[in-house]
Design brief:
Length: about 325
């Protein structure tokens, strides 16, 4: 049995530390994801300090989080993940890491290098990504395992799949296949970059295709057209037309959830952050884990806030560094 089948961009993360002057030198906006060529990514790496390495990519981080949480609830089934990697050492390393964490993998091997993301973490713990997609861009619907999908309860993907025509086509067709099988669809906008670049496309596509929509306040302001400075509640009310359940992340303040029953506010938890890498991804994992258990939306939000608050206290999206019992409690 598969709990959630995820489709995303498999990336090896290179986590580095830098100051805001470095971002200025790179003409980069803090907290964004930037698609770059290999040479520019190498410049970013050369300007950062204290590199650390771990598998990543938004969807993979969410699926890994679901596997980590499900280790305490085996009845929910095993999460699965698909995407394209290179036929190289990084691709093999990525596969082994996910499988060791309890994820069923369906990774397509391509004749180009595995994608990488250089992540600069600034002193305010914000992360700015410089991503070279590599093999990710080669994924197509023919790589998708429909038989495995038939064993799933839910399908999950992110806005990053809209970066190439073949990836977008794969995501669209996978979601249609999921709907034909009666599965619910979860979608994470994942980045303000995605919201700005694909706003028109997503506004047209999301309604009727997505059951649970994840986004932060900035992303929803962009997509709904409410604009910078719009009140959180007004923005969420506008976003409510897009999907039955809209989950809006509001940073350390927690989250707000829109559903047919109204808007729910779930306060966040205070922690001393170290690195925000994977915060939104782990948030989605916590929410979906509780949702699959049939828990009330407020409980889903509480677990989402709790795991997100814990993941920012460690470097990278390293669930193994967390206390599962403490996260699951409450």
């Amino acid at each position: 049995m598969v709990s959630v089948y995820g489709l995303g961009n498999p990336l090896m993360d290179i986590i580095l530390h830098a100051d805001h002057a470095t971002l200025d030198r790179l003409s980069a906006v803090a907290g964004t994801m930037n698609l770059v060529e290999f040479e520019r990514q190498q410049l970013v790496v050369s300007l950062g300090r204290d590199p650390g390495y771990s598998p990543g990519g938004s969807c993979a981080n969410t699926i890994r989080g679901l596997a980590w949480l499900a280790a305490g609830s085996p009845d929910l089934g095993t999460p699965a993940y698909t995407g394209a990697v290179g036929a190289d050492e990084n691709g093999d390393r990525f596969r082994r890491f996910l499988e060791d964490e309890g994820v069923t993998t369906r990774l397509a091997a391509k004749e180009v290098p595995t994608g990488t993301s250089a992540i600069l973490v600034t002193p305010d713990f914000e992360r700015t990504m410089f991503t070279h997609l590599g093999a990710c861009r080669e994924y197509k619907f023919g790589d998708f395992d429909l038989e495995l999908l038939s064993q799933a309860h839910m399908f999950h993907t992110t806005g990053y799949m809209w970066d190439t025509e073949n990836q977008e086509d794969a995501a669209r067709q996978a979601i249609l296949a999921a709907q034909k099988q009666g599965l619910q669809v979860s979608f994470d906008v994942a980045d303000p970059f995605v919201a700005r670049r694909y706003r028109t496309v997503l506004l047209e596509w999301i309604p009727g295709k997505v059951d649970i929509l994840f986004a932060n306040l900035e992303e929803l302001r962009e997509i709904t057209g409410e604009g910078e400075g719009a009140e959180a509640e007004r923005t969420l009310e506008a976003a409510g037309a897009l999907a039955p359940v809209v989950v809006m992340k509001i940073g350390k303040l927690g989250c707000m959830i829109s559903s047919p029953a109204g808007i729910i506010r779930v306060p966040g938890e205070r922690v001393e952050p170290r690195d925000t890498t994977g915060a939104g991804d782990s948030f989605a994992a916590g929410f979906l884990h509780a949702y699959l258990q049939g828990r009330p939306l407020a409980d889903c939000g509480r677990l989402a806030n709790r795991i997100a608050s814990r993941i920012v206290t460690v470097q990278g999206c390293d669930y193994r560094a967390l206390d599962r019992a403490a996260v699951a409690a409450g």
